[in-house]
Amino acid sequence: MTVVARRARGATSGAGRLAVALLSPTFVVLALVVGYPLVAALRESVFREGTDLDESGFVVEGARFVGVDNYASVFAGESAVRFWNAFSNTTVFTVITVSLEVVIGVGMALVMHHALCWRGVVRASILVPWAVPTAVSALLWRWIFQADGVANSIIGQQVLWTTEGWQAKFAIILADVWKTAPFVGLLVLAGLQIIPNDVYEAARVDGASPWRQFWRITLPLVKPALLVAVLFRVLDALRMFDLPYVLIGPRKASAETLSMLAFEEAASLRFGPAAAYATLLFVYVAVTALVFVRLLGADVIGAARERAAKR
Amino acid sequence: MNTQLRRVLTFGGLGLILVYCLAPFYWMAVSAFRRPSDQFELTPLPAPFSLDNMTAVFSPGVGFGRSLLNSLVVAGTTTVLTLIIGVSAAYALARLHFRFKNAVAALIIATSMFPGISLLVPLLALFTDIGWINTYQSMIVPSLSFALPLAVWNLTAFFRQMPEELEQAAMIDGCTRGQAFRKVILPLAAPGIFTTAIITFIAAWNEFIIALSMVNDSSMQTATVAISRFTGAYGFDQPFGTQMAAGVIVTVPLVVMVLLFQRRIIAGLTAGGVK
Amino acid sequence: MGVRTTALRATAALGVAVLLASCGSGGNDTGEQTGGALEGRGEITFATGKDTSNNMQKLVDEWNASHPNEQVRIIELPESADAQRQQMVQNAQVKSDAYTILNLDVVWTAEFAANRWVVELPTDQLGLDKFLEPAVKTAQYRDKLYAVPVYSDGGLLYYRKDLLDAAGVKPPKTWAELIAACQAVKPAQPAIGCYAGQFEKYEGLTVNFDEAVHSAGGDVVDASGKPVVDSPEAKAGLDALVTAFQQGVIPQKAITYKEEEGRRAFQAGELVFHRQWPYQWNLAGKTDGSSQVAGKFDVAPLPGIDGPGSSTLGGHNFAISAFGKNKATAVDFIKFFSGEAAQRSNLLATSQAPTLASLYDDAELIKQFPYLPMLKASILSAKPRPQAVKYGDVTQAIQEAAYAALTGEKTSEVALKELQAKLQELVK
What we know:
Helix content of chain C: 40-55%
Low-confidence stretches of chain C: 1-35
Oligomer: heterotrimer
CATH class of chain B: Mainly Alpha
Distance between the termini of chain B: 34 Å
Number of strands of chain C: 11
Number of helices of chain C: 19
CATH architecture of chain B: Orthogonal Bundle
Largest sheet of chain B: none
Strand content of chain C: 5-15%
Number of strands of chain B: 0
Largest interface: A-B, 100 and 102 residues
CATH superfamily of chain B: MetI-like
């Protein structure tokens, strides 16, 4: 508990002790399941497993310290091309899917919030895409998009969706937005539900148009919930793996994401480079999250407000 | 006029949402109720209608009922623990004043930034060492840790929106800090808590790769793992029909359950609240 | 172990992990079993994918009934081959004793043997002279035996006998004859596609590419394992497929075909010829309405450029995990499972190709599986895929090159040149 303990020392006595007590279960769990493997992976990323064979054909065992070699080789030669391609795929998927999900999710939440009847049923049914196990839904979409599948029969043309090209990206985006827009919708709906009604009453008395009400009242009040939803969607989308892997298939340039690179390296028993890819992705995600929080002021825990208050 | 337009828009919107969410699922259900021999027909209705895939899911060798139960245990426990642990952490972040609060929040969310698949091998080594293979906790604890960051952040956002004055008033009336929180804040934040619970439950219910790696005893496997082990009748057969049938089976009860319970759960959370 | 202990120490800062370090170093390492000795009797596990017809369970039950103290438990792995390998590799990584017997794809032998994840087996005790020789070769690494072949597989050319008969042509022996046969069929069947195999970017593409190269007299790697794919023969083989795609001999959508997509196309009557494994025989012959071609097709050996072609060898071998316990029991169980009675029952139940030569000449079995003699010929003349320790990288390189050539992204010449360079790097 050293970290927590050290943190406690800085805290203001009573509240600090309570905070430690309340936060430590979270940190115990996270340290065990994420912290330990994460540190193990970081460590692994500066080692390289032996792949050389001895005379009798056995792999020479033992990992050797290679410093930043695993990282350097990501940016060298052919793997650099592959890395930047995966990097741009990951970014494109994230930007497009999360934007669409926000628009659709907020729309869903608004409609459900204003519906007087059927709200329960609709809210239950928007759970459907989110509740279908990812592997099963990826499979479902693969059959929808196969050469003589229902997608082609609806558009009346033969598009080979799972081959290289824009159509593979389109298929992934469609399937991902379908599955995760409800996630945004649910969180935003919950945010809408805690807005007191009298706020709207006041606005209506002032004669504000619905559009104005949305921008001036609804959006600011639902912002904390929306930002959490978007932030976690960004984190998830940047780590996208199952869907392109099952729907389009591994090692296709149009669909390869950074997570898939890390996975492929590990599958080829190059654990050091795999850990390096994972760490780079981690850094990318962390930087994105930081920029996101700064730019959009996702001041969820309100520390800034506190600091301002103190001044 | 305005209200009428509003009603049309709302109903149109509801209809649109239903179509959007359910059309692909409809295709899944249709595929599930086709005969295995005409699995890839494109007719909008299964003709002839068949329960072959459904019976295949529940064929005795598969033990699917048992794995549904395992999923329920894992996802249910995960949800309850996530809420308990998450609510206390979120309360600390939302209400208490202490240093390094930003760092704590950042550290919590940072744990959901590492690609999940890269945690697998170290975690397997760890669980093998401490003898957790083939146990519920080997699935619950990872699911818990995957769910906690979102739960903590989301609940923090909700708690912060609750007026602090109400809580202080309750404390002046003689409530302890804990009582004030339970009686005042929790009921008001019910929609947020309920949504967090749903999202956690579904994420745990759908977790696959950890459950697959940590458990090799088929009586302990979860539903998603059982689905991945479905086989066709012969070597290269992708058991599409049974997988779709199983997809329907794991999804529908979940949704029905939420439908039935959402009122009651929200009511339960709200009950006893200061209104 | 050293790695893990240090890793744990490195996490000391993270509080909780420290508590675990004490457990971490004690742990599960009962290292005595990791030697080469095949000793110990008792319970074992058998990790396998796809028990398609429950026949494995039936055979295991049979074994368990007569071996009360040496019970075998099946651990079913996921349906997909990649996921199966991933589970086995993970367990080997952490030296877990969860799996005793591993059901390995033929192409994994070298990797598992070279990493010491599976143990060497005593050649003299297993009666391997009765097995098909190419199948036994797939279980060897550097001339030592690491597994016992239980299932084999070879490619066959399925053809529409009715259409060929109507057009008055014989089943083709060469690629040119195949194309000519299609042209003869075309007037009566203008919409039909001529040929398909497995061309999606996955292991099946490696199989089909290897077959094209071998059938044109080329090789991917030579007998000593040196890459030789940069040859005119290999180019002729790949070009045959590339041209076929360009000219529509292979339908466009076949680039998305794995086994099942192709099978459905053949069964729907969309193809004259289809390169496929034996499993399609029973399914395409079904008369319950699922197949339009029941009774209208037959099989022939794969065609080559100048003469008969040669198939790529498939199949599965059983090996013993280096970290498993009770290896003596494991050896006995493998003997039981690869014995004649078990293989016969497997063939009857699953129609997977056996590895015992005698079963292919069994009149009763031939009556039920008329393609057996053809399959035997196919397997005996079949070529293995490169037996490389880094097989995963090798097959990826092959798929990369073949897919780029088939989709027209690169010329076959460039693709093969790059493949040659990559393979040289990989098997160095």
